[in-house]
Prior knowledge:
Blueprint: E1 5-7, E2 19-27, H1 31-38, H2 40-47, E3 56-62, E4 71-80, E5 85-94
Parallel strand pairs: 3-5
Antiparallel strand pairs: 1-2, 2-4, 4-5
Helix pairs in contact: 1-2
Amino acid sequence: MSTWNEIALTGNGTESEPCSLHWKKMKSTDEAFKDFLINPLTALSSDLSEVDSSWSVQSQLIGHEIGLSMDAVFIVGLIYRLRKTVFLTLYKYPVS
């Protein structure tokens, strides 16, 4: 499974914001992705030191009409510490 990559927040005072941005890419056919869909908080709290099991997760899935077979998923996570919430956007796209 790939690791989360942090996106640097720079400019206009964003360095002091109570949030961070991360991304990763997964294959929709991988068992790790299925586990992530079933229980994203467990995966996030295991992968990201900022997140623990007391947090909540809100998600949106773009490209769901593609289905879950043989495709890639690009995931962006906004970690918002003040609300102890991870906002996820999952973008499914065909690998061809």
